[in-house]
Amino acid sequence: MGTYRYEGKEGFAKWKGLEFFINFIRNHDEDIYDDDVFKILRDVIIWEDALPPFRRTFDQEELQKIKLRGNSKEDDRLDPASFNFNIVDMFYNAWQRLPRKTVKDILVQLLEKAMCMKPSDDSDMKDILQQRLEELQVTLCLSDLERDILLVHYLVRAHVLETPEPERILSAIQKLIFVAKCLNCNVNEVRKAMSDSEKLRRFGCISEDIRLNNSLVGFFDGTDDTPLESRYFKKYQDETLPWEFFGKLASEHGAVLKNMIVARKLEHGLNILLYGAPGTGKTSFARSLARELELDCYDIVRTDREKEESKIDPKMARLAALQISDMKVDRTRSLLVVDEADDLLSWNKGQFNTVLDTIKTPTVWITNTPARAIDESSRRRFDYSIHFEKLTSAQRTTIWKNSVRLHKVDALFDDDALAEFARRYQTSAGGIALALRNVANFAPTKEDAPAMIAKLMEPHCELLGIKPDDSLMPAKDYSLEGLNMKSGVPLAHIVEAIRRFQTEAPSAPPDRPRMNILLHGAPGTGKTEFVKFLGKTLDTKVIVKMGSDLLSMWVGGTEQNITDAFRQAKAENAILFLDEIDGLMQSREGAQRSWEVTQVNELLQQMENFGGVLIAATNFSDNLDPASLRRFTFKLEFAHLDDASKKHFFGRMFGVPLTSGEAARLEKIPDLSPGDFRTVRQSLYYLGENTTNADRLDALERESLAKGHTRYSSTRRRIGF
After folding, report:
1. Residue 552 CA to chain centroid, in angstroms?
2. Partner of 215 at 20 to 30 A CA spacing, among 11, 91, 157, 158?
3. What are the φ/ψ torsions at residue 250 (nearest 5 degrees)?
4. Closest by alpha carbon to 8, among 126, 152, 133, 154?
5. In the 8-state DSSP scheme, what is residue 612?
6. How far apart are CA 27 and CA 634, in angstroms?
């Protein structure tokens, strides 16, 4: 018997491959269409050992059938000197052309002799594959069968083993049968071990089309040195925000959560959902909660690596990582955090709910997904949930104050500066902390520090698509004078009425009227500018929600957005301005869909119960639901300018007098609004001194003419020939 040469770095793979190959040969009676199946014999059987059993078993006629083409000379003796011959071709041809059972007997006998040369197991001599296979088995708590199934798949991928036909064309059942033959077990055992409910599939080791996860190939062969456990979970060891940083969240929700986690029974899991607007501190809250309870915080790894090639669904892989983490960490002193869980929460609810029901370690799920987008059966499984709303200006101010102390730069900023930062930069706690950390590194003077904040925050906000909160500043030359109001109550009186409403205690009169105001009229007549003026005059924040902002594709989504808008305004003591409200408050009489009714109902209910200032604007008041009109305390109609108003805005916008002829021409231009004068001023700005009143009046006539076909025109013009 020749010397078996499977030693060194790849010894374990070769010996296990030979063991599996022997089992396959014993169990396989069908054709073999790929001669590579026998290439494992090259280093196992030498010519001197293979020739005698063939000579003893077959006659000369049968032996001639397995001669190779291209012989150097004809010879009726099996002699290596007379053939361009090799062991692989010999057995491949013998399998195809000679009695199969006899060939199998010879081959198995030779292979069993080869196996006798296998060295004894020595833990000090384990190669990388053997070490990592054992590590994976321990980490995933795999059975020996599951371990060996993975090994067969790896050896096929490494071309130590070959399937009877090219693997790429084998069906799933053919792959199962091949693995069963290699392991000398029933195919049903293999099928069960590779089913959806078992670890190999649940943990993403094997894909749906029965392929080994690509990331495991690199792990097994040593080309990927990423520690195994870190592929599934990582311990968070960086700094966390102080618990008191979260204020009301910590004192109210945090107190409940701490009691729930401490009091839970170990045989039961605990799933906590943190959901809501992005950048509101959900992840920081979870990590600080772990620190507050002196628990180890583990982040469940998210990776889409090689998902296309391995066909392992990344969502399934992440749920698998969570389950593996649950098995490996100390459940009595750990908190698992599944960040960016949006795709999981909206995925296969059956598999997701099963995971929720089986995880025993307290787990925090973090998502920006609205609650309504999560299946109700999944929502019911969360033991506790916290809705993180968009940060208010007051909350951001608190974050700025906490953050400057945390980064030891509080001496550089006074409270007014921090309040201005909070108003202007509507970013998250993370963005604030990032800016202040850089300020601390630069160590500027108190005079330079505010400018440095601006230099850091403006590109940060631009990158994230956050616009500075300057959108509601009124035009510098804006005043109430000159507006053509048809409501009877002067706007100045409305301003004072709102001021009294804000200063009066809400519980003062038993039947305190609401402060809901409807602004209606043609576009450009000053509705939005009035709201801007109101906010500045009353020193009150204005929260603007366009009707289109509140409409949602989700069932119940519009209603939830309406509720959130009123809740935000209440939390910030702000004026809530609903612009272009006609799409939300259209008459229910002609509604054809249920949601067209429910969204109006929700809006009416919120208007009824809201204790703040609500202003709604529309260009189409005729379309509003009649019940909504009754809920407005004031209905202010902004009309097109009358003759006196036109002259007022001409003088205000252009700063030049009109001749009597020009004034008469201006009076004849119909349907002008303050917005038209501003548009004309902007369009003529760069013409400078060359601009005349004739140019201005021409431009105003064009603006008026453009309205000739709209519903707002007082004098409809016919268009055509």
Report:
1. 18
2. 11
3. -70, -40
4. 126
5. S
6. 89
Sign of the dihedral defined by the CA atoms of residues 681, 683, 688, 691, in that order: negative
pLDDT at 477: 66
The predicted structure's pLDDT at residue 717: 41
Measured CA to CA, the distance from residue 527 to residue 532 in angstroms comes to 9
CB neighbour list of residue 358: distance below 8 Å, 6 or more residues apart? 269, 323, 326
Distances (CA, A) of 313 to 115, 210, 310, 369: 40, 13, 9, 20
Between CA 440 and CA 408 the distance in angstroms is 7
DSSP H stretches of helix in 388-466: 393-406, 415-424, 429-442, 449-463
Q: Provide the residue type at 406 as one letter.
A: L
What is the pLDDT, as a whole number, of residue 613?
Answer: 94
Dihedral over alpha carbons 23, 26, 27, 28 (to 10 degrees): 110
Strand order in the sheet with 575-579: 484-485, 634-639, 515-521, 613-618, 575-579, 542-546
- Strands 575-579 and 613-618 come out as parallel
Neighbours of 651 (CB within 10 A): 14
Q: Give the other-Cβ count within 10 Å of 611's Cβ.
A: 15
The pLDDT of residue 508 is: 55
Give the residues across from 634 on adjacent strands.
517
DSSP 196-241: TTSHHHHTTSB-TTS-B-HHHHHHHHTS----TGGGTEEE--S---
CA distance 357 to 269: 7
Q: pLDDT below 70 — which residues of the chain?
A: 1-10, 67-85, 119-125, 303-312, 468-477, 505-511, 555, 587-596, 708-721
Residues in the chain: 721
- 162-184 burial, b at 16+ Cβ within 10 Å, e below that, comes to bbbbebeebeeeebbbbbbbbbe
pLDDT reported for residue 78: 46
Q: What is the pLDDT of residue 325?
A: 92
Dihedral Cα 619, 620, 621, 626, nearest 10 deg: -150
d(CA 615, CA 576): 6
Is pTM beyond 0.85 here? Answer: no
Question: Residues 589, 560: contact at Cβ < 8 Å?
Answer: no
Question: What is the residue-wise DSSP string for 391-412?
Answer: PPHHHHHHHHHHHHHHTT-GGG
Query: Angle at CA 327, nearest 5°, toward 233 and 325?
Result: 10
Element holding 578 (H helix, E strand): strand 575-579
Return the residue matching tokens 């007549």.
525
Dist. CA 139–CA 540, nearest whole Å: 58
Assign 527 to helix, strand or coil: helix
CA distances in angstroms from 37 to 5, 20, 104, 561, listed in the order given: 19, 12, 14, 63
Give the pLDDT of residue 192: 95
pLDDT of 9: 45
Q: How far is CA 446 from the centre of its chain?
A: 40
What pLDDT digit, counting tens, does each position of 548-591 carry? 878 877 767 788 888 888 988 888 888 999 998 887 777 655 55
- What b/e sequence results for 523-542 when a residue is b if at least 16 CB atoms lie within 10 Å of its CB, and e otherwise? ebbbbbbbbbbbbeebebbb
Q: Under DSSP, is residue 28 helix (H, G, I), strand (E, B) or coil?
A: coil
State the greatest distance between any 2 C-alpha atoms of the chain, in Å, as a whole number.
129
